[in-house]
Amino acid sequence: MEGRKELWRALRIMSRSDSRIDGEATGRLPARAERQADVLETLRLTAVEGAFDTRTHRGRGFAGWRPA
């Protein structure tokens, strides 16, 4: 996600000298990419919790391992 955010920043800079690029739109896109990264991180952490949750049958621990 960092790469996408940096792409939008580069396009924003390029919009100053290239009228084909909408500077206003590219100005909003880094914040959108940041929000998407935040959502993705939340989903990733939720998946990790589920994978390692030894209190339920849902989680199987690391490669099926469960503490004794």
What layout of secondary structure does this protein have?
Layout lengths: L1 H14 L7 H29 L17
Helix pairs in contact: 1-2
Helix content: 55-70%
Please report which band the strand proportion falls in: under 5%, 5-15%, 15-25%, 25-35%, 35-45% or over 45%: under 5%
Oligomer: single chain
Order of helices and strands: HH
Query: Number of helical runs?
Result: 2
Q: Which of globular, elongated, flat, extended, rod-shaped describes the shape?
A: rod-shaped
Total strands: the figure is 0
Enumerate the spans where pLDDT stays under 50 for 5 or more consecutive residues: none
* C-alpha end-to-end distance: 39 Å
Structural class: mainly alpha
Mean pLDDT: 81
Largest sheet: none
If you compute it from the alpha carbons, what radius of gyration comes out, rounded to the nearest whole angstrom? 20 Å
Keywords:
63% helix; mainly alpha; rod-shaped; single chain; 68 residues
Give an overview in words:
The chain has helices at residues 2-15, 23-51. The chain is mostly helical. Helix 1 packs antiparallel against helix 2 (23-51). It is 63% helix and 0% strand. The chain is rod-shaped.
